[in-house]
Design a protein that fits this description.
The complex is a heterodimer of chains A (about 210) and B (about 120). Chain A has about 210 residues and is of the alpha+beta class. Chain A has a single domain, classed as Chemotaxis protein chec. Chain A is about 50% helix and about 25% strand. In chain A, strands 1, 2, 3, 4, 5, 6, 7 and 8 form an 8-stranded antiparallel β-sheet that branches. The radius of gyration of chain A is 18 Å and the shape is globular. Chain A starts with a helix and ends with a helix. By secondary structure, chain B is α/β, with parallel strands linked by helices. Chain B contains 5 helices and 5 strands; from the N terminus they run βαβαβαβαβα. Chain B has a 5-stranded parallel β-sheet with strand order 2-1-3-4-5, sandwiched between helices. In chain B, helix 4 links the parallel strand 4 and strand 5. The chains are: A alpha+beta (about 210), B alpha/beta (about 120).
Chain lengths: ~210, ~120
C-alpha cells in the first residue's frame, strides 16, 4: 500500500466510524433499524460536487447543515427527500396536522429537523474530532428545502473560505420500517484536507510504531 | 493468544495492533475480507477472531456465519461504531462474545482479551 492509498484508507475509516455513529444515533431517535451503505469517500473538485453526489439538479431536498471551523473547515450535511423529512419529523414529534391546529406545522418541522440534524451531525463529528485529536467547532444548524444548486448557493454565501477541492464522505441511511432514506455528506476545504492528511499520517505512523 | 483481525481497512487493523497490550504473548494476524479470513483461519487457527461490521462485500456477521459453517469454532468479537440494536442483536444471535465499539483503545482491547481468555 502506498502512502496515498494508506491516507485514503485512513480517511475511509474515519468516515466509516463517524457515519456509523450517525446511523446509531438515528436508529435510537427513530427506534428503527437503520441500514447504511459503505461510505463513499472521494476527493473532488468543488464544481464536480453535484455529479459526485449523483443528485438530479431539480430534486428538492430537505437539508440540515452545520459549518465546521477551528482546525477543520467545512460543512457537514444531512439530506432527505422532502417527503421523507416530513415523515421523519411527524414520527419523532408525534404531531399530526389536526393536532397541530393553529400552530405553524412548518415551523415545527423546521425546528425539529434542525434538532435531529444537530444530534446526528454532532455525533459523527465528535467521534471524528476525537480520533484526529482535533478541535472541531460547529455552527448552529441551518435548515433549507431546495435543489442542490440552490442549497449550495445558500451555503456559500458569507463563506470566509473558498474550496477548490472537497472531500465527500457520503452514505445512505435507510430506516427499515418507515421508508425514510437520507444521506450524510461532509465537505472539507483544501486546507483542511491537507491538515487532515498530515494528522492521518501522524496517526498511522504512531500506530505503526506502537504496533511494531 | 492467536488473534485474527478481519477488517477491510488497513488503518483499523493498524490501530488494533497499536493498542494491543505490550509485553504479552499474543500473535495478531490480519485479513481484509471473507476469502482471506477463511485462508488465515486454516493456516493460523486463531482462538479469537475480531471482525469489523461494515465491509463492502460481506458484513462482519455474515463472515462470522461463514466461519462457523466452514467448521471453525473460534471466539468472536464484532468491531464497529454502528452499535444500533439491529447490529448488536445480530452479533449476539451469531454467537459473538462481545461488540467492541470503534474507535478502539487499549482499555477496550484489554477487556476483550480478558473476556476471551
Amino acid at each position: 500500500m502506498t502512502t496515498d492509498e494508506l491516507e485514503l484508507d485512513a480517511l475511509c475509516e474515519l468516515a466509516n466510524v463517524g457515519l456509523s455513529r450517525a446511523a446509531t444515533r438515528l436508529s435510537q431517535l427513530l427506534e428503527d433499524d437503520i441500514e447504511m451503505t459503505t461510505p463513499l469517500v472521494r476527493v473532488v473538485a468543488y464544481e464536480e460536487l453535484q455529479q459526485a453526489l449523483q443528485l438530479d439538479e431539480r430534486t428538492i431536498i430537505a437539508a440540515v447543515w452545520q459549518e465546521l471551523s477551528g482546525n477543520v473547515e467545512g460543512t457537514s450535511m444531512l439530506m432527505f427527500p422532502t417527503e421523507d423529512s416530513r415523515m421523519l419529523v411527524q414520527e419523532l414529534v408525534g404531531l399530526s396536522m389536526q393536532e397541530a391546529g393553529e400552530i405553524d406545522l412548518r415551523a415545527i418541522e423546521h425546528e425539529a429537523m434542525m434538532e435531529i440534524g444537530n444530534i446526528i451531525i454532532s455525533s459523527a463529528m465528535a467521534v471524528i474530532a476525537d480520533m484526529l485529536g482535533q478541535d472541531i467547532r460547529m455552527s448552529m444548524p441551518h435548515y433549507v428545502e431546495a435543489t442542490l444548486p440552490d442549497l449550495m448557493a445558500q451555503r456559500d454565501r458569507g463563506h470566509a473560505w473558498q474550496e477548490t477541492q472537497v472531500i465527500i464522505m457520503n452514505t445512505r441511511l435507510k430506516a427499515r420500517q418507515r421508508e425514510i432514506e437520507g444521506r450524510m455528506v461532509m465537505l472539507l476545504s483544501v486546507t483542511s484536507v491537507q491538515l487532515l492528511f498530515a494528522r492521518l499520517r501522524e496517526l498511522l505512523l504512531n500506530a505503526s510504531a506502537a504496533g511494531s | 493468544m492467536r488473534i485474527l483481525i478481519v477488517d477491510d481497512s488497513k488503518t483499523s487493523r493498524l490501530l488494533f495492533r497499536a493498542y494491543m497490550p505490550k509485553g504479552e504473548q499474543h500473535q495478531v494476524f490480519e485479513a481484509a475480507n471473507l476469502p482471506d479470513a477463511l485462508g488465515s483461519l486454516q493456516e493460523t487457527q486463531p482462538e479469537l477472531v475480531v471482525l469489523d461490521y461494515n465491509m463492502p462485500e460481506h458484513n462482519g456477521v455474515e463472515i462470522a456465519q461463514a466461519i462457523l459453517q466452514a467448521g471453525f469454532k473460534p471466539k468472536m468479537a464484532l468491531l464497529t461504531a454502528n452499535t444500533q440494536k439491529m447490529v448488536v442483536d445480530a452479533a449476539m444471535a451469531a454467537g459473538f462474545l462481545q461488540v467492541l465499539e470503534k474507535p478502539v483503545n487499549a482499555e477496550k482491547i484489554a477487556a476483550l482479551l480478558e473476556q476471551a481468555a
